[in-house]
Each structure stands twice: as structure tokens, then as C-alpha cells.
Write a structure and sequence with these properties.
With 386 residues, this protein is an alpha/beta fold. The chain folds into 2 domains: 66 residues, no CATH class; 302 residues, TIM Barrel, CATH 3.20.20. The protein contains 12 helices and 9 strands. The chain has a 6-stranded parallel beta sheet with strand order 3-5-6-7-8-9. β1 and β2 form a beta hairpin.
């Protein structure tokens, strides 16, 4: 499945205004409806006039809101496919948010309120108050919807166990540390409690959800760990938890490591023997000038560390900076790829992706970035004689 220079997305895509308003029970404006028409036509979404008619209704009942959400998934799916990606998903249109969606479908989590993640982005933070388990599979419905509609392979992003633990309060009985104890003892107790929590989530929440997806026919699952380097001396725990999730399961399991000092991940991620690919963002720290070689491509200096990992996993090469509206030219994408090909000694272990999910960008900017990414891959293939 991991073919050379395969293109795919990382996960999130901004939710359209009409999708957000329908979910909140608010009427759509003419501008919202126009966007549904424009993008439905631009992307070639089959039957989109049905959505437009639905959005013109002054109020929507529960079933109609669910229908609008499903339309948003079809739009997201077509968004990535029309941009030319080889492997697609819907940009997580069904989910409230990557963390909250998982916590809402689990036993042992109780929501405490909203906290700021970055800029003006917030998420609902929960406390783990007892043993964790899966209440019900929480990605199967969206996978089955998209699998039926897709004309390309799909990849499913799933929030990883370390991130679920790191973004939660730990209020389990017995997890509290005695503040009167010596500092060294408190640190040992805190580390033991964190390890217990992470592995509980891995074994009893994430893994059962993966098993349900495999039964539904999923073949490629990406386990996201945006919090993976929050505590540098716990990266070995993140790696251990990944393998607890996937050990013995038959599928292509990959991971996404979000923006970080990537040197922190080595050598701990060598333990992730079940990981077939690391998708990593590099464009955010790179030059916008053309060229190949270390001086021209400063954002890619770390990639040789991924090249040398035991078992020769693949690298999902981030070539689009998702934190800016700058549209990378196909030639810039080409040179980033060709530089990586030189470092790896060939394209066989390289795929091409944005740095991260595109939810912080407008659909117009995200689409133009992806179209140019695909065009850059074509230029790179031509330069390699393929």
C-alpha cells in the first residue's frame, strides 16, 4: 500500500460554514448556501443540489442535521480526491474534535470544560476518573460512509493513547501524589501513574476501536500523536503504547508526529516496531527558495534519522506549511522531494503529505496547496525518469 511518492492527507480539514451552522441548529445565510453550490460544482460532488435545497430550509430536525453532516463528509472526500491525492479521507467532518470525539465514546472520561490549544482554538478537556474502556466504536460509521463513496483508497486517522492521556486530567482514585513526599519519590509516582494511564487507554480504548475498524474492512490506519513530545523523557512510553495498540493486528499502521524538535524522538521511536510510516512536518521550518541539498533545504536536516531507523519504515514527507496561506509552487515541492530522494538513496520509502492537517486554512488555500503538491510530485517523478 505504501508505494513510492504516494500522496495523502494527514487528517483534519476546516468544516464548511453550512456544516457548522446546521450542527448548531442555526439557519444558513445565502453566502453559506452559495459556498455549498460553488464547491459542490467545483469538486463534482454527486447530487449536491439535494444539499443546497436542504440548506434553504429555515429549520432542520435531528435527522436532517445528520444528513448535512454526511454531506460534509462527501464534500471532504471529494475535496482530497479532486485535488489529485492518491489516498483520501473526509477531513474528519463527522468528528467534533480529535480528542473530544474519542473521549465522548469512552467509559472513564468526564468533561471538565474548554481549554485553549493554540491561537483561538479550543478543545473540551476531560478528566479520567476511573478505568478506561470503549463505550462504542467511534470511527466505523464514518469509515463505512466514506468507503462506500470513495473511488480511491482511504486512510483513517485515529487519536493515539499518549495524546489522549496528555490532554486529560488524571483524577483516577490512587493517581494523586502525596505533596509531602520527597521530590524524587513524587516524580517516580507521577511517572508510574502516567504509564498506567497511557497503557490503559492503549489497551482498552484505542486498540478495541482499531479492532472494530479492521472488522469493518479498514486497511490503513494512522495513529496521531500530536502530544508525543510534550514530556521528552516519556517518548519511550508513547512508543510502547503504539505497539500495545497494534501488536498482532493485520493492517498498515502509521503515525503522525506533530510539530516538535524531532531529535527528541530518537532513539525512543525505534521501539515502534509496528509502525510502517512516520508522517512528519518539515516545510514549516524550510526555506521557500528552490534548490536541493542541505544548504537549500534546512527544514529537512533531520530526515536522515528517519532513513536510518531499524526495519526501514517509510517517511511521509511534509512539503506544505499548514500555518501560512503561502502557496508552495510545484517546483518548490519538487525540490523538497528530490532532496529527500537524495538523502534516502531513492524514492521507495517516501510518500508526500502536508505538514499536518489543513483545518487552519480556508478551503480555497488548502485546495490550491494540495493541487500544487500533486503537481510537484509529477515534476519529481519526471526528474527521476519515472
Amino acid at each position: 500500500m505504501l508505494a513510492p511518492l504516494l500522496t495523502h492527507e494527514i487528517g483534519s480539514l476546516a468544516k464548511p460554514g453550512w456544516r457548522v451552522k446546521a450542527a448548531a441548529g442555526r439557519p444558513c445565510t445565502e453566502a453559506d448556501i452559495e459556498q455549498a453550490e460553488v464547491w459542490g460544482n467545483r469538486l463534482g460532488v454527486p447530487g449536491y443540489p439535494e444539499l443546497v435545497a436542504l440548506l434553504r430550509k429555515p429549520t432542520l430536525d435531528h435527522g436532517e442535521r445528520s444528513t448535512v453532516r454526511d454531506w460534509s463528509s462527501r464534500y471532504g472526500l471529494r475535496f482530497f480526491a479532486a485535488a489529485g491525492l492518491d489516498v483520501v479521507y473526509d477531513g474528519e467532518q463527522q468528528r467534533s474534535e480529535m480528542y473530544a470525539w474519542a473521549a465522548a465514546h469512552a467509559h472513564g472520561f468526564e468533561f471538565r470544560g474548554s481549554v485553549r490549544s493554540f491561537d483561538n482554538k479550543y478543545y473540551s478537556k476531560a478528566a479520567v476518573t476511573g478505568p478506561v474502556s470503549l463505550r462504542e466504536p467511534f470511527h466505523n460509521d464514518e469509515f463505512e460512509l466514506l468507503q462506500a463513496a470513495a473511488d480511491k483508497p482511504v486512510k483513517i486517522p485515529v487519536t493515539g493513547p499518549y495524546t489522549m492521556a496528555a490532554w486529560s486530567f488524571d483524577e483516577r482514585p490512587g493517581a494523586a501524589v502525596d505533596p509531602r513526599a520527597p521530590l524524587a519519590e513524587r516524580r517516580i509516582a507521577q511517572r508510574a501513574a502516567r504509564r498506567e494511564l497511557v497503557l490503559d487507554i492503549a489497551a482498552n480504548l484505542v486498540r478495541p476501536n482499531l479492532e472494530a475498524l479492521l472488522k469493518a474492512g479498514a486497511g490503513w490506519i494512522q495513529i496521531d500523536e500530536p502530544a508525543g513530545s510534550t514530556v521528552p523523557d516519556e517518548i519511550d512510553l508513547m512508543a510502547e503504547a503504539f505497539d500495545v495498540c497494534v501488536r498482532g493486528l493485520d493492517a498498515t499502521f502509521t503515525t503522525h508526529l506533530c510539530f516538535s524538535d524531532y531529535t527528541l524522538f530518537f532513539p525512543a521511536i525505534e521501539q515502534m516496531t509496528g509502525c510502517r510510516q512516520y508522517t512528519v512536518g518539515f516545510a514549516n521550518g524550510d526555506s521557500r527558495e528552490l534548490g536541493i541539498g542541505p544548504a537549500a533545504r534546512p527544514g529537512y536536516r533531520i530526515i536522515e534519522r528517519f532513513r536510518d531507523l531499524p526495519g526501514q519504515p517509510h517517511l511521509g514527507l511534509g512539503v506544505l506549511d499548514i500555518h501560512t496561506d503561502f502557496i508552495e509552487s510545484p517546483e518548490l515541492v519538487r525540490d523538497r522531494i528530490l532532496h529527500a530522494v537524495e538523502v534516502f538513496g531513492g524514492p521507495e520509502r517516501l510518500q508526500v503529505v502536508p505538514d499536518c492537517g489543513l483545518r487552519t486554512r480556508s478551503w480555497d488555500v488548502a485546495y490550491r496547496k494540495l493541487v500544487n503538491m500533486v503537481a510537484g510530485v509529477r515534476l519529481a517523478r519526471n526528474a527521476l525518469g519515472g
